[in-house]
Amino acid sequence: MIVEHRGAAPALHPSAYVAPTATLIGAVTVGAGARVLHGAVITAEDGFVDIGSNVVIMENALVRGRGTHPVVIGDHVMVGPHAHVNGARVGDGAFIATGAALFPGSTVGEGAEVRIHAVVQVNTHVAPGAVVPIGWVAVGREAQVFPPDKHEEVWAIQQQLDFVGTVYGVGKDATMQDIMEGQSTYFGEHEADVILRL
């Protein structure tokens, strides 16, 4: 499905392929030879998503561009099934495996690998060619990588990265009620969407 959102419509290169059950919403650009497979959702909320050439977005992946954190995916990138790329930049030739999660403000360098169910936290920069192992967490402006049982070490760094401000645009003292009322308004903008193609 191709959907106009906030007055912007997706733009696909003629050689790109979007599966009939994939959904592209808003200011999304899909490059030459790119493939968006079944169930994938690529949504430009109040920003944009730019997908390079020969990129494959696998089944049920979510790619979300935001106003302050657009998504830019370089050429020759694999985004695996059920992966979550939210407000992140991904360099050429990177590999984002099944179930991996990239949070707003994060960067994955050229040729880097974020393996199965690994996480790249907000405002974290994974160096070109680096590997985030299966299930591990990368955190920090210059990423440090931790196994999942090192929550305290991850949290000590993550507290400095302003998760709620980066993701929700609120101060650290915001309540869940504040956050969700803001999110309800933010996503309420979809009520004005226009379906351009099923």
What features would you describe in this structure?
The protein has helices at 151-158, 163-168, 176-188, and strands spanning 2-4, 11-12, 17-18, 23-25, 28-30, 35-36, 41-44, 49-51, 56-57, 62-65, 71-73, 78-79, 84-86, 89-90, 95-96, 101-102, 107-108, 113-114, 119-120, 125-126, 131-132, 137-139, 144-146, 194-197. The chain has three helices and 24 strands. β22 (137-139) and β23 (144-146) form a beta hairpin. The strands form three sheets. A ten-stranded mixed beta sheet has the order 23-22-19-16-13-10-7-4-1-24, covered by helices on one side. Helices cover 14% and strands 31% of the residues.
Measured by DSSP, the beta-strand proportion falls in: 25-35%
For the biggest β-sheet, the strand order reads 23-22-19-16-13-10-7-4-1-24
Largest sheet: 10 strands, mixed
CATH topology assignment: UDP N-Acetylglucosamine Acyltransferase, domain 1
Order of helices and strands: EEEEEEEEEEEEEEEEEEEEEEEHHHE
- Cα distance spanning the termini: 4 Å
**Number of β-strand runs:** 24
Q: Which structural class fits the helix and strand makeup?
A: alpha/beta
Range of helix content: 10-25%
Unreliable spans are none
Give the assembly state of these chains: single chain
Number of separate helices: 3
Highest CATH level, the class? Mainly Beta
Number of domains: 1
Using the alpha-carbon principal axes, give the shape: globular
What is the name of the CATH superfamily? Hexapeptide repeat proteins
Q: Kindly provide the radius of gyration, computed on alpha-carbon positions and rounded to a whole number of angstroms.
A: 16 Å
The overall average pLDDT, rounded, is 96
CATH architecture: 3 Solenoid
